Amino acid sequence: MAPHAMKCQFIDNPPCPQHTAFMTTENETLVEKALSKLIGRGDARAAPEGRLRSSRPDASSSSKTEWLAAVRAVPIADLRVEIHHVLADGDHVVMHSRRWIPGAGPGIAGVDIWRLEDGLIAEGWEIIEPVTEAASHVVWWEPVPPAADARP
Predict the structure, then answer these.
(1) What does residue 123 show for φ and ψ, rounded to 5 degrees?
(2) Domain 21-134 belongs to what topology?
């Protein structure tokens, strides 16, 4: 490998003969309906059905019960969501959105990846970024200067 070559490992779903265009569209619709109920009703009891396991970039994960507890902490009735993209491939659905609560600041941008199994959401991964920090994340490899109030 050349010294300047990118080291990268792709981890993806292997091709599966059961993945069809219909399955992809059906899964996209299932996720959209589940999240619309959750956000539209403003009630965590309308959460996606299934054995949901949620994972975060920090390698933490939570059960459906823990995920629902975190969702209940958000004032869902006030939450606003702009869905910018919904993409589906086989049993995975990806959603890019911006979320905010009026009067509470600019909000976050998020990417959610959902894996469906037997017509239910089985797993979810989420990456969120406060929109006010987006510019600083463009150069994520540069060291962050210590905060003015940080102590050695």
Answers:
(1) -140, 150
(2) Nuclear Transport Factor 2; Chain: A, (3.10.450)
SS3 (DSSP) at 141: coil
The pair of three-digit structure tokens given for residue 23, joined into one six-digit string: 């399955």
How many angstroms separate the CA atoms of 31 and 84, rounded? 15
> Do the Cβ atoms of 48 and 54 come closer than 8 Å?
no
List the structure tokens of 52.
Answer: 């949901």
Are 96 and 110 in contact, with CB atoms under 8 Å apart? yes
> 111 falls in which pLDDT band (50, 70, 90)?
very high
Helix H or strand E encompassing 30: helix 21-41
Residue spans of the domains in the chain: they are: 21-134
What span, in angstroms and rounded, lies between the C-alpha atoms of 43 and 13? 33
- Give CA–CA dist 152/139, Å, rounded: 25
The rounded Cα 123 to chain-centroid distance in angstroms is 11
Task: Report the percentage of the chain scoring pLDDT > 90.
Answer: 7
The alpha carbon torsion through 25, 27, 29, 35 (nearest 10 deg) reads -150
Q: Which two tokens stand for residue 152?
A: 């050695």
